User: Fold this.
Amino acid sequence: MSETTREPDARRLATEARDRVRFEEDALALSDQVYRVARHLVGSREEAEDLMQETYARAFRSWRSFQPGTNLRAWLLRILTNLNIDRGRRQQRTPDLQPLEEGDYFLYNRLEAAGDGGTSDEQRVVERLSQNDVVAALSEVPHDFRDVVVLVDIGDFTYADAAQILDIPIGTVMSRLHRGRRILKQAMAETAVGGDA
Amino acid sequence: MQPYMDRVLTDAERREAETHLEECAYCRKRYRFEEHLRVYVRQVVQAEPMPVELKTKLQGLRTPLQ
Assistant:
């Protein structure tokens, strides 16, 4: 090989190394945000930590397939949700087990009824739920529904981003979101107020 | 209510929802509750930070500089 071809080669390698360092730094800067979503996509902190490590290992290996200028956080979460599915967690997916699905206002009505004299301050009604109530209730939402609720309500992704991350149509995102939020509220009502009124 | 809260309605639909919320105390109360609830859930679940050791482990996955 002649000098003239080796020279641009070296330059190309240097550029690539610089791009990769930048990519890795950008990805690591997002790790807190990715973790918050991951933590609630899976059942335990240990699983979330494993999944994060697998995700970052894969991201660093396949960094060339990321298109600069697109949403890196969504790209990382797409890897993460795919790995989560690959690990077979979905196989024990909870069947359609919500025979009785309450309406949208169920939680409000229950919390209001449970309060002494029923305060009309909506914010104080919300705060009758403890942190544990919320976290426990979220873990009870079946996977398919939880994924969408976690991505949109906690991860603050748009419907379109969530659809791309999970590889499902936008209409499915919307319907799962609606049902997932209802199931979540029902679970919160049960933990916070108890099974029967 | 979900499409209104998620801000995916057309302008006309949004106005219709807002007019209804102005007129109907029952829905307004519940809408405000849903809004507070969403913010609260987000705050509560984000309160748990990423473990420091995990951060170190992720850092360790980086490609070594040649």
About this structure: Chain B has a mean pLDDT of 87. Chain B touches chain A through 33 residues (CB under 8 Å). Residues 2-60 of chain B form one domain.
